[in-house]
Amino acid sequence: MIIKKLITVLILLAFFSNTMSAQQHSKTYEKKIDSLISTEFGNINEPGGVFLVAKNGKILYRKAFGKANLELDVNMSPEQVFQIGSMTKQFTAVAILMLEQQGKLNVNDPISKYSKDYPNGDQITIHHLLTHTSGIKDFTKMKSLSTIAQKEMKPEAMVDFFKNEPVDFSPGEKFDYNNSGYVVLGYIIEFVSGDTYENFIQKNIFDKVGMSHSYYASDRKIIPKRAYGYHKKENGFVNKTVISFSVPFSSGSLMSTVDDMLKWQQALGQNILLNPAETQKAFQKYKLNNGEEFTYGYGWHLKEINGIPDREHGGSVFGFKSMGVYIPVEDIYVIGLSNCDCHSPTEITRNIAKITQALVKK
């Protein structure tokens, strides 16, 4: 009887010791991440951001920093909605692959099939648009952009704005990050689906995945928990520059939360939206005409962290910056969203991923 009690006591001691050790480990990890983020987002009276870390779908870290609205003195919360800028491209790329899966298009189709009078459209394919290898002029580098920045532009008019500009290079000749290509992809999504880009993304992705706090951006709609965007000037902060979201369109006009972006990442991993073959197209490296491989798939940069392959993408739009990193082998996802384009989450997010890798290996 005494021996049984002794064994029970030893088991309980071991359990509590392991529990305390895990808790201590968790606190150390949290302090490391807090310290890392605070270097850029530590001022509680400035615009801030939200960061989330998940491993195997389980949230390890989720915190908000700074203010969601300076004028109303509202503290940031983890539920805040941000514009995600070019992370929109992930959704546009997956929408194209969904349409291919339905047999409505092929990524090797020339874009002349969908825009008959597009210059050199017989030589530029959907694949070229997805991989930033089309050579068409990036509209964000055009001086005349300011003439349309606040106008409501239909997708066709937006394509017309840049399509007759001189090309930068022949299709497939080089990789050069390009917003225009993703605007053309949005136009193709509308042409093929018979629906607006906004509705297509809402019905086929947001609703299906349960991303109930994600939207096509609007300055007119009432969006609960919206974080307002800011710029930093010499004399302090100012409200973000107002643009028409029909201009960045399918290259950068979506809004989301860190929680919804985790749902997005899990949906991709579980093949909820795409079958494995289509999913693989998004996450493989491709080659230029000369056989040289480049580090971009469809909507994601394909790089490495500590020598381990990752998938990542950032975003920058007036008043906001974003960054997401996913390490498939370790199932680690890190997402950082900022409501000032003066605070970049890019390197912080990558460094959080490195710290999390180290934690996993212990």
Question: Which descriptors would you attach to this protein?
Answer:
alpha+beta; 362 residues; single chain; six-stranded antiparallel β-sheet; 36% helix; 15 strands; three-stranded antiparallel β-sheet; Beta-lactamase
Protein described:
The structure is a single chain. The strands form 5 sheets. A 6-stranded antiparallel sheet has the order 2-1-15-14-13-12, with helices on both faces. Strands 5-9-6 form a 3-stranded antiparallel sheet. It has a two-stranded antiparallel sheet with strand order 3-4. The chain is of the alpha+beta class and 362 residues long. It has helices at residues 2-41, 88-101, 126-130, 155-163, 179-193, 197-209, 258-269, 276-282, 346-361; strands at 49-55, 58-65, 67-69, 74-75, 82-83, 215-216, 230-233, 236-239, 254-256, 286-287, 293-294, 301-305, 308-317, 320-327, 332-338. It is globular, with a radius of gyration of 23 Å. The protein has one domain (34-361): DD-peptidase/beta-lactamase superfamily (Beta-lactamase, 3-Layer(aba) Sandwich), CATH 3.40.710.
Structural class label: alpha+beta
> What is the CATH class name?
Alpha Beta
The CATH architecture classification is 3-Layer(aba) Sandwich
Strand content: 15-25%
Q: What distance lies between the first and last C-alpha atoms, to the nearest angstrom?
A: 38 Å
What's the number of helices?
9
Task: Give the structure's gist in a few sentences.
With 362 residues, this protein is of the alpha+beta class.
Which SSEs are present, and which pair or pack?
Blueprint: H1 2-41, E1 49-55, E2 58-65, E3 67-69, E4 74-75, E5 82-83, H2 88-101, H3 126-130, H4 155-163, H5 179-193, H6 197-209, E6 215-216, E7 230-233, E8 236-239, E9 254-256, H7 258-269, H8 276-282, E10 286-287, E11 293-294, E12 301-305, E13 308-317, E14 320-327, E15 332-338, H9 346-361
Antiparallel strand pairs: 1-2, 1-15, 3-4, 5-9, 6-9, 7-8, 10-11, 12-13, 13-14, 14-15
